[in-house]
Specification:
2 domains; about 60% helix; two-stranded antiparallel sheet; mainly alpha; 25 helices; about 525 residues
Length: about 525
C-alpha cells in the first residue's frame, strides 16, 4: 500500500463533499451542531442519572454549597461537582434547566469535532481531518453519550483537549504549551470524573516508539524537568477544587464532611475500580455487547483496516503506534475493572477514528473501483445515516413526551393538598419534581417503609408516598389512596390512619427534610 499522503490522492484532485468540507471546515462544526443539537430543549431528563445531576445542580444553586453536593439535603458523594457547577451556572444565567443539562455534552461534541479535524489536517492533510470528524459524527456512541445529560458527555471535552494537546506535543512538537494545556485538561477531567487522566496513557506507546526509533514521533531528550512540570500542572488544577474542599472540611470538623472526602477520594475511585458494587459485567462485555453495536458503522471497515494498520506498523509509523496503542490501553483499563457500562469506552473513540481516517480515502477508492453504482449507494446510505440521527433528535423527545415523574409529583401534590410528604423507596425524579416539603431517610437506606410508618405515628398531619410493592407490609390497602395517572410506577398516598400496626423500628437513623424554595420547571 502506498504512503498515506499519496493514498489520499492529493487535494488538487479532491472532489465531492469532502472537498467542500476541506475548503470550508466551519461546515463540519455546523454539521456537528445540527446533529448533536437536534431536539435540544425538547428533551426532559429521562433516566435517574440525568434527574440526579440536574437535581444536585439546582440544589447547589439553591443552598449555595458549591463544594459538597447534596441530594434532597443528603450529601451526594458519588461524583465531583464540576459538571453540576456548570449546569447550575447555566441555569443562573437564565438557561432553562432542561437545556442547561444537555449543553455541556453538546459543546464537548463541537470541541471534539474541531480537535479531530485539526489533528488530521496537521498529521496528514485536510481531507484526513474531514474524514476523522465525519467518522466521529457517524458513530452511534457519539449520540448515545453526547446527547445525554451525563458527566461522560462533559468528560469528552477534557479528554478531547488532553488528547489534542498531547498529540500536538508528541508528534508535532516539541510544543510544551500544548502539553501543559493537555495536563490542565486532564486535571479538569479528573475532578469532573476520575478517569480524566486517560490521555496520559498514550505516553506508554510514545515512550516505546521513541526508544525504538519509530518515525513521526518527536524525541525530547534532557527535558525531565519540563515533563515533571506537566504533573505539577495537573495536580495544581485538581487543587482548585480539592484544596478549598479540604479547608472546608477541616474548619467544619463534621463527620459528614470527612465521610464525603473518604467516599469521593477512595470509595468512588480505587475501591470502585478494584471491586465494583454496581454494573458488574464479565471481562468480554465491551467486546461482545458494546463495541458491535455502539461503534457502528466503524466496525464494517475493520476487515480492511486491520491489515492496513499492520502494514503501517510494519513501516514503524509512530502515529499509528501511539493512536492504536492508546485505544488498546483504554479498552484494557476498563476491561480490568469489574464494573462496566456502555459509555465507559467512549474516550477511546477519537483515537480510533483518527487512526482510520488516513486510510478511508484508499478504502473508498478500493470499494468504488470500476463500480460507480457502489459509490452512489454509499453516498445515499451516508446521507440517510446522518439524516436519521438528525431526525431522531426530534422524534425521541416527542415520542417520550414529558417526564413521567414530573407528572406524578404534580398529581401527588394535588391529592395530598401540599402536606409534608414522606418519601420511601424513592428515586431522584421524585425529589427533583417535588412541589411540596419532603421528609426522607436517605436514598439507599433499607426498610424505608418501616421508617415512614414510624414517622406518621408522630406526625399524623403528614402524608407518605409508598410504592405498590411495599404498601401492605406496613399499611392497609383499603385506606390508601392510589395516585391515578398513566405512570410507569404505581404509588399510593397514606396517612397515619392507614397504619396496620405491623411495622416498628427502634434503630436510630438519619432523617432529612427538604423543600424547593422556588419552582425551576
Amino acid at each position: 500500500m502506498a504512503d498515506v499522503g499519496r493514498l489520499s490522492g492529493g487535494e488538487a484532485r479532491h472532489r465531492g463533499f469532502l472537498a467542500r468540507f476541506s475548503r470550508s471546515p466551519w461546515l463540519l462544526l455546523l454539521l456537528a451542531a445540527l446533529l448533536l443539537g437536534a431536539g435540544l430543549g425538547l428533551r426532559h431528563p429521562s433516566n435517574v442519572d440525568e434527574e440526579r445531576f440536574l437535581g444536585v445542580a439546582l440544589e447547589m444553586l439553591q443552598n449555595g454549597d458549591w463544594l459538597i453536593p447534596h441530594r434532597a439535603a443528603e450529601i451526594y458523594p458519588d461524583k465531583p461537582p464540576v459538571f453540576m457547577w456548570l449546569v447550575a451556572l447555566l441555569v443562573r444565567l437564565g438557561v432553562s434547566p432542561h437545556v442547561a443539562l444537555f449543553l455541556p455534552g453538546f459543546f464537548a461534541g463541537l470541541v471534539a469535532t474541531a480537535c479531530l479535524y485539526d489533528l488530521g489536517k496537521r498529521l496528514w492533510n485536510r481531507r484526513v481531518g474531514v474524514c476523522a470528524s465525519l467518522l466521529f459524527l457517524a458513530t452511534y456512541q457519539t449520540y448515545a453519550v453526547l446527547r445525554d445529560g451525563q458527566i461522560d458527555g462533559f468528560l469528552c471535552l477534557w479528554i478531547s483537549l488532553g488528547f489534542y494537546g498531547l498529540l500536538r506535543h508528541l508528534m508535532l512538537g516539541p510544543a510544551w504549551r500544548w502539553f501543559y494545556l493537555a495536563c490542565a485538561a486532564m486535571g479538569m477531567g479528573i475532578i469532573s470524573k476520575g478517569v480524566g487522566f486517560l490521555p496520559a496513557l498514550m505516553l506508554i506507546p510514545y515512550a516505546y516508539g521513541v526508544r525504538q526509533g519509530w518515525k513521526g514521533l518527536v524525541r525530547m531528550p534532557g527535558q525531565a524537568r519540563a515533563w515533571w512540570l506537566g504533573l505539577l500542572v495537573t495536580l495544581a488544577t485538581i487543587a482548585l477544587w480539592l484544596v478549598p474542599l479540604l479547608i472546608r472540611v477541616a474548619l467544619d470538623g463534621g463527620a459528614d464532611g470527612r465521610a464525603y472526602l473518604d467516599d469521593i477520594l477512595l470509595h468512588q475511585t480505587a475501591k470502585r475500580f478494584a471491586s465494583a458494587w454496581q454494573h458488574q459485567e464479565p471481562f468480554w462485555y465491551f467486546f461482545v455487547k458494546v463495541i458491535p453495536q455502539y461503534w457502528m458503522p466503524l466496525l464494517l471497515a475493520l476487515p480492511w483496516m486491520v491489515p492496513a494498520w499492520r502494514r503501517q506498523l510494519a513501516r514503524r509509523d509512530g502515529r499509528y503506534l501511539v493512536l492504536l496503542g492508546w485505544v488498546a490501553l483504554v479498552l484494557l483499563f476498563f476491561t480490568l475493572s469489574s464494573g462496566k457500562r456502555k459509555l465507559y469506552i467512549f474516550p477511546a473513540l477519537p483515537g480510533l477514528v483518527l487512526a482510520m481516517a488516513p486510510l478511508l480515502p484508499w478504502l473508498l477508492r478500493r470499494w468504488f473501483a470500476g463500480r460507480p453504482w457502489v459509490r452512489k449507494v454509499f453516498v445515499v446510505l451516508a446521507v440517510l445515516w446522518f439524516s436519521a440521527w438528525f431526525a431522531r433528535g426530534f422524534i425521541e423527545p416527542l415520542r417520550a413526551g414529558g417526564n413521567d415523574r414530573q407528572q406524578l409529583m404534580a398529581e401527588v401534590a394535588q391529592e395530598s393538598q401540599g402536606a409534608e410528604l414522606v418519601l420511601a423507596g424513592w428515586r431522584e425524579g421524585h425529589w427533583l419534581y417535588a412541589r411540596q416539603p419532603l421528609v426522607h431517610f436517605g436514598l439507599d437506606t433499607p426498610n424505608q417503609v418501616v421508617m415512614a410508618a414510624e414517622w406518621l405515628r408522630s406526625h399524623p398531619q403528614d402524608v407518605a408516598m409508598i410504592s405498590a410493592d411495599d404498601l401492605e407490609r406496613c399499611f392497609q390497602r383499603e385506606r390508601a389512596l392510589e395516585v391515578k395517572g398513566k405512570f410507569e410506577e404505581q404509588w399510593f398516598l397514606v396517612r397515619a390512619d392507614a397504619d396496620n400496626g405491623q411495622c416498628h423500628d427502634v434503630t436510630p437513623h438519619e432523617t432529612y427534610r427538604f423543600a424547593w424554595r422556588k419552582s425551576f420547571f
